[in-house]
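User: Hi! I have a protein structure encoded as tokens and I'd like to know what sequence might fold into it. I'm fairly new to this, so please keep things simple.
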């Protein structure tokens, strides 16, 4: 299904398109994202020095103008320095780099529908972007680095149109010191070692949102866990191998159960990265998930999160929200997937988990609207739990057969595209004999916690 991206474009007279808070890019992240063009491909040629935390990059962004364009912007953190910009092989009339935006002014205006090849040479010491959600983006590890961009950290390491509905394929080439393993999204297309450095080139064919792009560099070993239904591999420090074998021992079973419930796994492979450092939370990227050493301590205490991160490959990565308002479409679904895995594993049922979390929600603060939690609360645990309860209410309302058929149609019809709550409620209506509008109103649009569904 076509992306809904174009909806956010208001034709203009070619005036400034500078991500002004009033331009309606995304009410939750008004400074991110850009107007006037649509990116169709990113090519990132990066070199990273682990010891000094130095990044040097050339980004080639292929795009199409959507309006007459004399001036346009890209997101890039000002902690990095831009040394050269060209558009279609020509230097622009001028460019500036301020407040995490590169603003490019062309000598001659581009007509609507014009092909654009934007080349940006840049570099520096990357560091995360600080915001209401803590530090996101490029993060230096004790030995190596990772990128966990959600929601607005992508610009900490590459110039981009940083908006979740702006999805595109990527080619990521990363050169680093030879002893280190370097991982990026997609499939390893080639790898070559020259002197003391190795270049790893990854091709990410399926369109990807900027916040799901990642680099993972560290003193890792790579292991294949399974080749069916897709290749599952692990990237981790050797010292954690035996913990990993136990803690992630059911990774393939989780994959099998999710493919059964949600439809085919959407990407060619899945990689689990475990860093040598502890991480506060695991994080999803397209085609891979990152866990900390603390999630791999030999107790299998984080299996819930192993299921959660895998579920994001369907809910968040293949089907990506158009606006952060609809974050429950990612986190509610991933949380409900944890409960579904528990049920399929013969442990606590989804219903029992739903009841437990419902009691906790009913006893807690009731000041959040799950269908529009506000930017400060978009990663509030209640979005996850009540989002999952919304799905449980739907499941109880339409029955198991319709519920799972609907989930599979959801992942099939909107594969690789952008989605909204309205897309989901429209689809759900086709699986229900009765109107679901009261259900959505109760669960997504009001602060009060509804009665447990069916009670
Ligand atoms: Zn999540």
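Assistant: Happy to help. Inverse folding works backwards from shape to sequence: for each of the 455 positions I chose a residue that suits the local structure. Here it is:
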């Amino acid at each position: 299904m076509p992306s809904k991206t174009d909806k956010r474009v208001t034709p203009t007279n070619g005036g400034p398109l500078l991500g002004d808070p009033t331009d309606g890019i995304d009410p939750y992240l008004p400074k991110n994202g850009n107007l006037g063009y649509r990116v169709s491909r990113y090519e990132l040629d990066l070199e990273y020095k682990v010891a000094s935390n130095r990044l040097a990059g050339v980004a080639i962004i292929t795009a199409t103008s959507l309006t007459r364009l004399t001036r346009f912007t890209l997101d890039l953190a000002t902690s990095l320095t831009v040394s050269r910009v060209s558009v279609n092989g020509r230097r622009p009339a001028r460019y500036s780099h301020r407040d995490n935006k590169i603003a490019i002014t062309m000598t001659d205006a581009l007509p609507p529908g014009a092909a654009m090849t934007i080349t940006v040479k840049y570099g520096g010491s990357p560091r995360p972007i600080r915001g209401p959600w803590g530090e996101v983006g490029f993060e230096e590890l004790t030995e190596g680095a990772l990128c966990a961009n959600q929601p607005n950290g992508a610009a900490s390491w590459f110039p981009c149109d940083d908006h979740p509905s702006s999805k595109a394929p990527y080619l990521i080439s990363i050169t680093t010191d030879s002893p280190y393993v370097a991982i990026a999204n997609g499939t390893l297309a080639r790898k070559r070692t020259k002197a003391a450095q190795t270049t790893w080139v990854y091709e990410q064919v399926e369109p990807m949102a900027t916040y799901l792009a990642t680099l993972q560099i560290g003193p890792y070993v790579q292991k294949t866990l399974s080749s069916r239904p897709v290749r599952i591999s692990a990237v981790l420090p050797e010292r954690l191998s035996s913990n990993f074998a136990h803690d992630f021992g059911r990774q393939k079973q989780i994959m099998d159960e999710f493919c059964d419930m949600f439809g085919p796994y959407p990407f060619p492979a899945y990689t689990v990265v475990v860093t040598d450092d502890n991480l506060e939370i695991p994080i999803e990227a397209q085609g891979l998930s990152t866990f900390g050493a603390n999630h791999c301590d030999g107790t299998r205490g984080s299996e819930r999160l192993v299921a959660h991160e895998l579920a994001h490959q369907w809910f968040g990565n293949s089907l990506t929200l158009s606006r952060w308002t609809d974050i429950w479409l990612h986190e509610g679904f991933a949380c409900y997937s944890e409960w579904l895995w528990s049920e399929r594993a013969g442990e606590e049922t989804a219903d029992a988990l739903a009841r437990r979390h419902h009691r906790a929600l009913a006893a807690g603060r009731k000041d959040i609207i799950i269908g529009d939690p506000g930017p400060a609360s978009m990663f509030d645990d209640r979005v996850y739990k009540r989002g999952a309860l919304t799905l449980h209410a739907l499941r109880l309302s339409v029955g198991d057969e319709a519920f799972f058929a609907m989930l599979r149609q959801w992942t099939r019809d909107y594969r690789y595209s952008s989605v909204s709550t309205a897309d989901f409620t429209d689809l759900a209506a086709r699986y229900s004999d009765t109107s679901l509008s009261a259900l959505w109103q109760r669960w997504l649009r009001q602060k009060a916690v509804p009665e447990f569904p069916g009670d």
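A useful reference point when you look it over: Residues 220-313 form a domain with the Zincin-like fold (CATH 3.30.2010.30). Feel free to ask if any position seems puzzling.
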